[in-house]
Design brief:
CATH architecture of the largest domain: Sandwich
Number of domains: 2
CATH superfamily of the largest domain: Immunoglobulins
CATH class of the largest domain: Mainly Beta
Structural class: mainly beta
Radius of gyration: 18 Å
Length: 339
């Protein structure tokens, strides 16, 4: 996969009820872009320092995660409902156009498939790496602390199909039962903290134009210059649009060992927003053997600045470390990862 990005979007919010009733969180933003079919992730070329990179396909970006089926493949979620605060195995398969289970994948960033999970209010986030069984079924344990509506994204490239669709992002809804309390999307902020690390965001997210986003990591007032590779890079960024959870999967410019990319303190990305609106950014980075997730809220078409320093209430339950329920961005332990 190239180092640049493809922005994707999918359907409007759905509500589900069972067991103890719950509803959809309030405060979602309107969306101006109409959904369309998904293609492969875009390529905007290598980063060029502070220079803006022309996005050749900015006006033609085709959103993904909208459909449960696309390009001849279907995301078949076997556990569409789970209970809050209870560890459950999520099970799913990717099926081909004949209904068979896909067993061959092209490995991307060290994994055959990346599974992203997010709550509709964007306060809970997980980057999961499920296990593939010999029969083509996938599974991963997950424990979610809050009831509500969630979205799953399966990001993968089918293997052994030279004429295939390339990289796909398919989406499916997950309902979590229990007492539901809607949350507002955290307020925009340029700085957040997680596990004692401070991450600062610079740059803008613009509709229809590739812009550079720069994220700088520090700890105890000192810049971190020895970030460790994670999934083949020094940072991994996912952005979700508030309201419809439009999906943007971003990878940084350059990679470890290329002779020009430094292991911190700054990791840069190029991203193009599909429309004006509020987005939630989730940065995974690894230091001293542990992956952590820093979360930001930005508004496309506006400077990424805003009220600095998100509070724990604003940051939400971004991730867990050992299922502890810590919140990235709040100074508590939390990495947003399960393997």
């Amino acid at each position: 996969m190239n180092t640049a990005v493809k922005i994707t979007a999918f359907a409007a919010v759905l509500a589900a009820s069972f067991g103890t009733a719950y509803g959809v969180g309030a405060g979602v933003d309107p969306v101006n872009a109409e959904p369309a079919a998904h293609g492969e992730h875009a390529s905007s070329g290598q980063p060029k320092g502070e220079e803006k990179v022309k996005d050749e396909g900015a006006g033609e970006a085709r959103p993904g995660g909208l459909q449960v089926s696309e390009g001849g493949y279907t995301f078949d979620l076997g556990t569409p409902r789970i209970a809050a605060d209870r560890e459950t195995d999520l099970r799913f398969t990717i099926r081909d156009d004949q209904g068979g289970k896909l067993t061959s994948y092209t490995r991307e960033h060290g994994k055959d498939l990346h599974l992203i999970l997010a709550s509709r209010d964007l306060t809970t986030y997980r980057h999961l790496h499920p296990e593939l069984a010999a029969d083509g079924s996938w599974s991963t344990p997950v424990k979610l602390p809050e009831a509500g509506d969630y979205r799953l994204f399966a990001d993968f490239t089918p293997g052994g199909d030279a004429e295939g669709p390339g990289n796909l992002t398919l989406g499916a809804d997950l309902a979590v039962s229990g007492a539901y309390r809607p949350s507002a999307v955290p307020a925009p902020s340029r700085t957040t903290t997680v596990d004692g690390y401070t991450v600062t965001l610079a740059g803008e997210l613009r509709p229809g134009a590739a812009e550079q986003l720069r994220l700088k990591v520090s700890k105890d007032g000192r810049e971190v210059t020895d970030l460790q590779p994670y999934l083949g890079s020094y940072g991994h960024l996912v952005a979700l649009r508030s309201g419809d959870l439009g999906y943007l999967h971003v990878h940084p410019g350059g990679e470890p060992g290329d002779g020009r990319t430094k292991p911190g303190p700054e990791v840069s990305f190029h991203a193009t927003a599909p429309s004006a609106g509020t987005y939630r950014l989730f940065l995974d980075f690894q230091h001293k053997g542990e992956v952590r997730t820093a979360a930001f809220t930005v508004r496309a078409g506006e400077p990424t600045g805003g009220p600095s320093g998100a509070t724990p209430k604003e940051s939400g339950d971004v991730g867990e470390s050992g299922e502890s329920g810590g919140s990235a961005g709040s100074g508590e332990s939390g990495d947003g990862h399960e393997h």
